[in-house]
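Reopening this one. Same input as before:
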Amino acid sequence: MSRVCELTGKKAMVGNNVSHAMNKTKRRFDANLIKKRFYIPEEDNWVTLKVSTSALKTINKIGIDAMLKEARAKGFYK
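Same output, byte for byte:
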């Protein structure tokens, strides 16, 4: 399973490790993801999602219903 946020679509980025001598080697910056269960009162069930921590902060701010509606509109969540 790929490391992609199911609500925002965040995924790994590519960059460089840079040594003191300015040698550059490729590396990955993975998204900060956690598995979290959410209760959806409209559907009356629990859903387990792999979300980024920034998406979790947004859920705490606007609510899971609004976040799911936004993710469905952008095509990240079915």
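So the earlier flakiness isn't reproducible anymore. For the record, Helices lie at 53-62, 64-74.
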